[in-house]
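Morning!

This is the sequence you dropped in the shared folder:
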Amino acid sequence: MNRTNLLTCSAVLAGLLLYGCSSSTTTTPQDTTSQTAETTKAAEPMNMGRGLELVNLDTTVNPCEDFYQFANGGWVKNNPIPASESRWGSFNELAERNNAVLRSLLTDAAANTASEKGTPAQLVGDFYASGMDSVAVNKAGITPIKPELDKIAAAKTTNDLMKTVADLKTKGMGGYFGLYVAQDDKISTQYALQAAQGGLGLPDRDYYLKDDERSKKVRADYLTHLKNMFGLLGNDAATSQKKAQAVINIETQLAKASKTRVELRDPYANYNKMTVQDFAKQNPKLTVTQMLEGMGSKTAKEIIVGQPKFFTALNSMLSKIPLTDWKTYTQWHLVRSMSPYLSDAFVQENFNFYGKALSGAKEMQPRWKRVLRTTDGAIGEALGQLYVQKTFSPEAKQKAKEMVDNLQESFKEHVKDLDWMSDDTKKQALQKLDAFAVKIGYPDKWKEYKDLEITRDSYAANVMKANQHEFKENIGKIGKEVDRTEWFMSPPTVNAYYNPSMNEIVFPAGILQPPFFDPNADDAVNYGGMGAVIGHELTHGFDDQGAKYDFAGNLKDWWTKEDLEKFNTRASMVDQQYSSYSVLDNLHVNGKLTMGENIADIGGLNIAYTALQKALKKNNPGKIAGFTPEQRFFLAWAQIWRVNMRDEAQNQQILTDPHSPGRFRTNGPVSNMPQFYEAFGCNNGDKMFRAETERARIW
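The structure's back. Tokens below.
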């Protein structure tokens, strides 16, 4: 189980992804647009100071009508999606720059065969070299997973199969359900064994159950993909068809037993603690005790079951569905998990469905990029050590820390000034803010890989060994003290997160780069970019999920009844606003699924604006290329979310992603801010202007 899988299993981290006129003088929108257009003609070489470029704007659009288009229209027009991508935006641009650095580091490490065993250079060098050796990978064919396929085929009973499944899960196989160790939501000082619904090959239950034409097409493409994969495993056409249908049948039943993504956002409903013995009695076909022993955990006495009804359904299915079909299902999830690391035929077929049919990419990414991503996912902190030495200076870390401190102080001011919250609840909120842990750049204590042996012999074997190492480390946490130094993203990751059980905000070095953060850019750009990102993660501690955890990271009710009702009323306004947004053929944003991220965007931008005003009192450069600091602040926010997406990827985002599309992440928050109206001269009647009674504002 690599770090990415662990994040998916725990489902507790709130990540970022988951994408002029002076402030004291208002002008009409027409004046603002005209002035901007004149500035464009005069600006040489088409820039607005470090961090923003005029060429990315669309000055034919009134910022008060569609700020996203005004701020990003030029970029959207001039940056088509590369054939190998399903989307292209600022996150991708930054990832590309990081990838160039990482590729150089990996190439150098792979070229050095004399690195000391167990060092970061040896681990990443040999891992990368094994993945780049396409001749050896193709020659091996299906050999790397042949022993596992043989074990599945040899199972005579469900008990035999579950024993094999336990072993395969330690090596990274999906299917059936999720099992992992994470903090106990109600006792954050302790680790707890946790079980969660899973077992699907499509991204979400709705793909199996919705009856619209788009969903039907995905299911048809999926069936074809399954048939092709079983054909690559050596089955004839008729057998492949039969096996593909068996998988569809099982997964459809699992989908029906699964909670929706909106239902999964309720942490109280997901907290069902019981003894392992009781869980085993309730679900005898799962042979829980045997599975845990096979996974290396004999010490667990209790388990937190996320969705008990799912396991009841799975247990019943194991009794009713023939063993042959379950063996087929297990074969599929093994090959699905491992196909990116096998010969070209498996890699291509995997891409044909997950990359092309499901996400809309036209061609596969180059091999080096795919192997780089796998290396980062498998041994990210080994690679991260090399990365931060190259890219992240102590000075950058210190400036980022200062921004975090400023944002926390601004958040405290916002809490103190709230007119809808009582003093009792404010006291609890301020206590939680004071208790926030902050992690910037990279871990203070690097992850060790003492027992992990990586060689150049087999790419797939290295992936499985890395998964086993991660799984063993995770399952071995039971009974140990919670490690609050642990990171759940690697340092090169272009993302950030809030972890409610740790009550911490984490910003990897990978995102602390332009355009999000530039130590040499002016404050307006940095606070509109990275400052708003920091504010976003801080606000996650007080969104509709994070607000259910106290200062120590425990799932606990710390609100007065009256204040909670007021909070929910304001949150419902956020739901209504974002649910009104639509993409494609009137496919609407799910305001309830995206609630937490939308609250974090709105709160984070407001808090960052307050922090900027503090910074401007110390150093106000005035206009740059005709834009005030306030205007540059909002433009910096908008450029974070600029993106072009294929229809397939956009459909998948609406169904599965707790983040709203980039256009609405830009326009949604600013349309609630009178500071934005003032900066760009927006008035009642403009599309970006919302009546005061309709403005969503919580924090």
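Headline: The radius of gyration is 26 Å.

More detail when I'm at my desk.
O.
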